[in-house]
Amino acid sequence: MKMFLKLLIIAAIVLPLSGVTAKAQSTKAQIEALKQQIEAIQLQNQQQIEQLKQQIEMMETSREADKEAVAEIKEEQKDAWYNKFKAEYKKGLIFSSNDGNYKMRFRVRGQFQASVTEEDGENTATNFSVARLRLKWDGHAFRPWFLYTLQLGARSNVDLRDLYFTVAYNKAIMPRVGQNKVPFSRDALNSSGALQFVTRSIIDGEFAYGRDRGISLYGALGKNSNFSYGAGVYNGDGRNGTSTDSNLLYAGRMQFGVGGEETTFGGLFRGANSSFPTASPYKLIPNFAKSPTFVVGAAMAGIPGLNINRKSPDGSISNRMEELGITVADVVSITGDVNFKTPMFNVQGSYMGRWIDPDQGGAGSAFDQGFNIQSGVFLMPKTVEFAGRFSYIDYDTSAGVVPPGTSVQDTKWAITPGINYYISHDHRWKVQLQYSYISESFTEGESDINSNILRAQLQAFF
Prior knowledge:
This protein is an alpha+beta fold. The protein is about 20% helix and about 45% strand. The longest helix is centred in the first third of the chain and has 77 residues, at about 1-80.
């Protein structure tokens, strides 16, 4: 019995101690397991970190390679032709080289016209037409002072109108070669895209010399280029004509102006290559002025020994000589003009005279003359303008000039009111409406011819 009690006491003491020992051994195992998991996680994370570091190194290497490739491409493209030019639009599409030695401006001008003409003895005619279609390139080549202009007419067929080169190294002496407008009539020198009316005056059609081929010299003098000149020698056979003799056309024009505003090319030209290098701020355009502007000009032109069987200058010289029965004559023309304009008002006057002195005996020298005056008032600044014009031509019909019994034109006059809507606030984009009454009288009792012409025109110049 005593032995049994001893065993029970020993069991009661030993059994709890063995449970504690077993529990302690189990906790130790768990701790070891957790340590192993931590080590495994650390190892896995370290591997992932190493992988990420490798990816970063590869990306950085690729990035550097891309930078090098881009740098190589840029270096290769630096000398590519398309990186040596720039393009922009400024009153025309302009291409220019970065070194400043080449520049080309391209422009298109179209005029769509509707007209109704009523003339004595003729049917009333209503007509829609493309009055003008011009393609123009201008700018400079090789050096900024070597200027060029090319203009084509493309209404019904392609027609060369202008092709000339100007050396503008010194603004006082600028040689020019090629086909261009003869430096004579103010109206003719003003672009047909910058007219105050749909058409030029009747005296311009009668007396002007238009375009011709030859050599000429232009210049602008004075600190502000107030005085300018142009003089040249030409074939005398008009646009695209050829000289078959040595009886050439000689022409010269002088112009003086005060007031106005600066223009392009350092204030020397009306445009990049104008038909006539007007005095610095002074344009041939009869209207549009930022400040009061006064310009006066005079010109003289002539063709010694003009034979109309060989040559036909632009204008009506040949028609007039044929009307008088003259084949060969010395022709001399003069003109003077004045223009005053302010932002709201403008007025212009022109006078032209022409001597036709026949070489053959018996016929007298004919002196024809005419004048034109026109004015405009802006009803809305730079937008809506009302304009009026009066033109008159007096033909020489004296007995020593006109063959006996021959009916020739005696006088011609025209009165033209008009209204202009300048959409672009200049001459580039505009709508014009004008009415003209034209009266022509003849000698030998021949009836007068009176005409009523209504014209409307839309122009886009871009």
